[in-house]
Design goal:
By secondary structure, the protein is mainly beta. About 10% of the residues lie in helices and about 50% in strands. It is globular.
Length: about 240
């Protein structure tokens, strides 16, 4: 009996130690690198890992990102597809801005196979992924970007505060959780108001990640496989200089 009790305690201790690793959910995000000048190439970097844990996966763990389609929308609304190439630590593509202004960079994967997400309490689900970021060229005005994806988050900076606006199918998404991860990798949870907005004060310079998830509980079939839910996920990044 004593041996069984000791074994039970050991198993419980191991579960507690391993729990953070078992519950960790990876995600995607976009970053950019460039001079902010007209005519000079901009790198678009697409990562997979845990931004809050400073984990960036590499090698064949990035293979499944091949189905993410990336595009850039310029200041007059023209959308151009970006060819992304797999590197050791990320996927990478480039574009060259021709005018001053804010360029919206979007990514989507709405073709992923139905998955068993039972361990995430989603059952058999169809995952749909969205990403966005903005690249500023010149002294562009800090206007709010237009919502362009089915599940979307845009940002606007004013008087030292950041206003986040959440949308689903072009409509404001009220009473919805947003997870904000700052450059120092702390996480903050905020809920949108009846207008689909929430405000927070940034902690300093660097890249911020905002995560939004919405679950459609209507069952269906995709690529010949039945699913119980559709998990829509949006990950938006922005940089404070």
């Amino acid at each position: 009996m004593k041996s069984n009790t000791t074994l039970l305690k050991l198993c419980l201790l191991l579960t507690i130690i391993c729990l953070p690793f078992l519950s960790r959910a990876h995600g995607y995000w976009l970053e950019t690198q460039g001079s902010g000048k007209i005519g000079e190439p901009v790198k678009i970097l697409m990562f997979f890992g845990e931004y809050a844990e400073a984990i960036r996966e590499k090698g064949n763990k990035l293979d499944k990102m091949a189905d993410l389609k990336v595009s850039v929308i310029d200041v007059i609304g023209k959308q151009s597809a970006i060819n992304m190439v797999q590197k050791e630590t990320h996927w990478e593509g480039t574009f060259t801005p021709t005018t001053n202004g804010n360029y919206q960079i979007l990514a989507i994967n709405d073709t992923r196979e139905v998955q068993d997400f039972t361990k995430h309490n989603l059952g058999i689900t169809r995952p749909v992924q969205f990403m966005r970021t903005t690249y500023q060229v010149g002294k562009a005005s800090a206007t709010n970007a237009k919502n362009l994806q089915f599940l979307d988050v845009t940002t606007n900076q004013e008087n030292g505060k950041i206003t986040l606006s959440a949308f689903k199918d072009k409509q404001a998404l009220a009473k919805t959780k947003l997870t904000i991860i700052n450059p120092q990798t702390w996480e903050k949870t905020k809920f949108t108001n009846e207008n689909g907005q929430t405000t927070f004060t940034p902690t300093g310079k660097g890249l911020y990640l905002v995560e939004l998830e919405w679950i459609d509980t209507n069952p269906g079939t995709f690529k010949g496989k039945d699913y119980q839910t559709i998990r829509y996920k949006s990950e938006m990044t922005f940089v404070l200089d």
